[in-house]
Task: structure prediction
Amino acid sequence: MKESQKIRLGISVGDINGIGCEVALKTFEDARMLDFCTPVIFASNKTVSQQIKDLGIDIKFNGVRDAEQAIEGKINIVNVWKEVPAITYGEATKEGGEYAIKSLRAAVDALKEDKIDVLVTAPINKNNIQSEDFNFPGHTDFLARELKGESLMFMVTNSLRVGLLTDHIAVKDVAEAITPKLIRDKVMTMEKSLKMDFGIRRPKIALLGINPHSGDNGTIGEEDDKILKPTIKELFNKGVLVYGPYSADSFFGSKNHENFDAILAAYHDQGLIPFKTLSFGKGVNYTAGLDKVRTSPDHGTAYEIAGKGKADESSFKEAVFTAIQVFRNRTEYLELTKNPLQKQKIKRGG
Result:
């Protein structure tokens, strides 16, 4: 990307029967958003036109064959398909899943080829996306395979960041899945992201316990004592500011989370329930640890309001801003760390 160019922000539309197109189009219905980036939506002119008509959105766009043809100052639609898929708002159909994956694959290919700089993904349905050639629980697992690095599901706002040790696995499998290696990998990925993507020089990380009351010294399970505590101590002795394990039931209610730059939860609901309670509508799902930047809103397909024009675009807009800011932070960080003179300045400064 040339310095004079705006960030090219790719968008996969998610399930065409959900609210993905709606929140994306409403975000850029505000023309001021075009001052921050050049949006590139992966779908088709006809599909987007139908959504615009059905939802009464006042917007114009520029159709292109390839993301490289995107024009600054306009909303660009890459024509991924020529046919006209049936849109049945509010229904989880096989066709809805198929076109969600077509959009996602095209967007990720463009991201890998540097035709776009960042990617924002609209919500998919984890059931109707499944097929012989797409067998992933969700976006994060697919992106982890397609892109380079070690992925971390990271829910973020301006004041709260929650990552997950394990994400889309059954609760009964959580304890067995958490190993010293997994903890080390996720903590180091989180620390690197906090430094590189969020500009925090000495991040403090809290790790939540696996069992109630972090096991109560082995009374309610031994995993916290035998796996978490020794690994936390090992990392801390190496200079990583990681603390815990903390009892999850009181950690957020007591506002202890405000003392840390990020929290690493043991499993999906342990982290996402408090996160969404504290920040729903403003939260962003960020896939940290990969060589490319991807964000998404903190909600799902919302079939119950799809096609009614009622969807709130706030979280999608936050996902756009977060992607842009992370890209800028990361670019600056990489420039500073590859310049020996700048490295010396950083060391002298603290």
About this structure: The CA atoms of residues 17 and 88 lie 6 Å apart. The two ends are 32 Å apart (CA to CA). The first strand starts at residue 7 and ends at 12.
